[in-house]
Amino acid sequence: MTPASIPVQPAPAGLADSLPTADFFGFESLLSDRERRKLEELRAFLAAEIAPFATEWWNNAEFPAHILPKLAALELSAPAQRGYSHLFAGLVIAEITRVDTSIATFFLVHHDLFVESLYGFGSDEQKARLLDDAASLRTTGAFALTEPEHGSDVAGGMETRARRVPGGADDGGDCWILNGAKRWIGNGTFCDYMLVWARDEADGAIRGFIVDAALPGVRRSRIENKIALRTVQNADIVFRDVRVAEADRFAGIGSFEDTNELLRGSRIMVAWQAVGQQLAAFDVARQHAVERQQFGRPLAKFQLIQQQLVTMLGNAVASMGMMVRIAQLQQDGAAEMAQVALAKSYTSARMRETVAMGRSILGGNGIVSDFRMAKIFADAEAIYTYEGSFEINTLIVGRAVTGVSAIV
What we know:
alpha+beta, two-stranded antiparallel sheet, 14% strand, disordered N terminus
């Protein structure tokens, strides 16, 4: 593909000519016609409903619940379940991230963790009862795994406990009593349901439960003073003698290993967020460089600025290319955790470099959210850490290539 044939977006206001998009190698051409049309529909929605308001929501740490019906109308919940490719599903996350990382994180937590969990592990009764409302965003979900004292080591260190209590027909049968705490739970302040992971007191196995957030004994509080993903409503959640019906235990979960498919999928989507962050940083930095006049000429005419823009573009294209291959492996059911970990660590490292260059190109304007880049720069720090930090993902790959674990 020659540069002249690369798809172009409408040029920013003030530019005479259209310019190539950050998809410099034209990876979108790998999508079907149906998928490309849907991606354009998503872009139109994001431009009209999200882009003009995202910075205000972020500044105010306010979640725009009013957009959920319009977001649901796009019918993009769990794309692979709707017959779309894994590449399309990844590009959906990248495009939403490109406009607002917080909304992309909401989408990922609800659809790629909660809804996909229902598809993957829910009983027929649970699916019939919960899936339609969740997929249509009439109800919202969260994924409650990490704890105040356990993040990377939560598989072995999980302290939240579940105790099975026998019951009779008069009181609804057996139930489970949950006690413990979770932290950093996205959507946690307002969700209707949460998928809670707890250790069975009887045998030490990890169980999953669908917990109605309105149950007695559930206490939620918003985590304040964040410098990233400010629109996302992360919560501290405490469970004190919360009674959960046996019917709300995920029958498909017998151990923590059963969650690997979910965690692998969510890690892939966060790596796509790292791609989206780089696309956003390139968009903003390039427009600024072309339009900003210094020393009587556009910033874009300075060699060092062009070098930085090309490095940003190269990082974005390399990251996208890696994720396209991961999507192909997913399509074949062959994406291994070590491959996914390499993708997450690599793309997040390139993202950190890319957004730092973008912030530099904007100079002083790069540290105020009015010019978008400060928000992009700050949100990147959350992506660098969650769904496996850079260090943990690096060590997962190290274990795969050496046969020796440096984690434990």
